[in-house]
Amino acid sequence: MNRSNRPSSFTTYLTLYPSKLAVNTITSNLLWLYLVTSICGVEETGLTSGDDFFLVEEIKALLSAVFSKLTRVDLNEEIPGLTSFLDFFSNFVDHFMGVSYGDELFQNFVLMPMQRQQNVEYRRLVWGEKSAALRVLTLRTTPFMSNLLGEREVDDEMLKLYRHALQSGVVRADRQPVLYKIAVHHLDLESRDGKIDQ
């Protein structure tokens, strides 16, 4: 379906009936369909219209509508249709690096699995193997900042990655305020706890 054929009233429909269970279900399903087809590389399905599909107004409205609900998803639980969320997230980050155009909503979706309550492997992926993504994560704030901070990071590898990102200048306060706060927060807590233990 090309963009000119998409219903122009879909965003209006969501606005008029935001509390309908059907709309929530459709929204969630369309988001999942979008993520799987556009980000996981299933480009020949006819369901996507290019790598920048997420910038289409109607799709962006759907992503915004379900974003707050997805921040509460426990990614440690099995997700139907995915054999490995880590592989999915790795593809997602690659897609982000390629076509994000600095989009703030897209950046928030990348940060979402990096919350402290999620598995540390998602944080390791972005701060380590996919560290090139750090340069593009330039958000000044995020709705779940407290979940990115929280209690001290106890994973030694993550602490090394935070330290390296700051010392190498890959992450800077003026360029990536959210990432800078995350790294400094956990390294400060580690330093304080180390002094108490001595």
How would you portray this structure in words?
This protein is mostly helical. It has a domain of 95 residues. Helix 4 packs parallel to helix 6 and helix 8 packs across helix 9. The longest helix is centred in the last third of the chain and has 21 residues. The radius of gyration is 18 Å and the shape is globular. The N and C termini lie far apart (64 Å). The relative contact order is 0.09.
Offer a concise description of the structure:
It contains nine helices and no strands. It is an all-alpha fold and 198 residues long. The radius of gyration is 18 Å and the shape is globular.
Key structural traits:
198 residues, mainly alpha, globular
Layout: helices, strands, pairs:
Layout: H1 10-16, H2 21-39, H3 57-70, H4 85-99, H5 104-111, H6 120-129, H7 145-149, H8 156-167, H9 177-197
Helix pairs in contact: 2-3, 4-6, 6-8, 8-9
Largest beta-sheet characterization: none
Give average pLDDT, whole number. Answer: 78
How many DSSP-defined strands?
0
Rg measurement, Å? 18 Å
**Could you list the spans in which at least 5 consecutive residues all have pLDDT below 50?**
1-10, 16-20, 40-49
Tell me roughly what share of residues is in helical segments: 55-70%
Number of helices: 9
The rounded distance between the terminal residues' Cα atoms is: 64 Å
Strand content: under 5%
Organism: Notodromas monacha
InterPro entries: RPAP1/Rba50 (IPR039913), TPR_RPAP1/MINIYO-like (IPR057989)
Domain RPAP1/MINIYO-like TPR repeats: 50-187
Protein name: RPAP1/MINIYO-like TPR repeats domain-containing protein
